[in-house]
Specification:
The chain has 230 residues and is α/β, with parallel strands linked by helices. The protein is 40% helix and 16% strand. It has a single domain, classed as Ribokinase (UDP-N-acetylmuramoyl-L-alanine:D-glutamate ligase, 3-Layer(aba) Sandwich), CATH 3.40.1190.20. The model has no long low-confidence stretch (mean pLDDT 90).
Length: 230
């Protein structure tokens, strides 16, 4: 049975920050597992997946099977997206157990820290009020789920990339924001592409920040990048 194309209604506040109304019962809630998908999975160098597409059992099963079929050395990037009510502690934990890289923002970190580590916090408070505790939480997640890296984005404050022994921080450039739709995905895509090209964590981080900042200056999620960012 065919399902309707996924639809998300996006509205922007006066600062250009998007709010999402994510429609139910769409095609990506019903992703079937096929032999062709498993063939692709076995050749994958990097897989990016989120929590939102796992709100349905069908798609969650397919995503898990795809990840389980991938080569052991493939990057498995859990780009967590805690939208509305569409997540549970179980889904987050199962995803982290299959990931080796976590991408998360400051408000999501507070939610995950409360759910999985028992750290009491309010959304947006951890990084703003206790940077030392933030670092401990990030490294606790790395250790608990055997992650290679944890990417933490903090809006206008900047972003971090943590490993179990290293850390990179890059300030967010000051730009004239048109809208922020696509900024997070462009960051993730750029970071992963740079790592696959053999760049260092720091180099990948700096390029990801630059591309994401440019996307914020443009209308729409997929603007054409200038040559210096390609």
């Amino acid at each position: 049975m065919e399902q309707p194309t996924g639809t998300v209604k996006v509205t922007l506040d006066n600062k250009g920050v998007p709010q999402y109304d994510i429609c139910l019962g769409v095609a990506w809630d019903n992703i079937p597992l096929t032999k062709e998908m498993l063939r692709v999975a076995k050749q994958a160098q990097a897989i990016c997946f989120g929590s939102l597409a796992q709100r349905s059992e069908v798609s969650r099963h397919t995503i898990h099977a795809f990840l389980d079929a991938a080569p052991k050395n493939a990057l498995r990037v859990f780009d967590i997206n805690l939208r509305q009510k569409w997540f549970t502690a179980e889904v987050i934990a199962e995803s982290l157990n299959r990931a080796n890289v976590l991408k998360i923002n400051d408000e999501e970190l507070d939610v995950v820290a409360t759910m999985l580590l028992g750290v009491a916090s309010q959304p947006g408070k951890l990084i703003a009020e206790d940077p030392k505790q933030t670092r401990l939480v990030c490294r606790d997640l790395i250790a608990k789920y055997d992650l290679k890296m944890l990417i933490l984005t903090c809006g206008a404050i900047g972003s971090y990339v943590f490993t179990d022994t290293d850390e990179s921080y890059v300030k967010t450039p000051k730009v004239k924001v048109a809208d922020t739709v696509g900024a997070g995905d462009s960051f993730t895509a750029t970071f992963v592409a740079q790592i696959l090209l053999g760049k260092s964590m720091r180099e990948a981080h700096e390029k990801a920040v630059a591309v994401s900042a440019f996307v914020c200056t443009q209308n729409g999620a997929m603007p054409v990048l200038p040559d210096e960012l390609k």
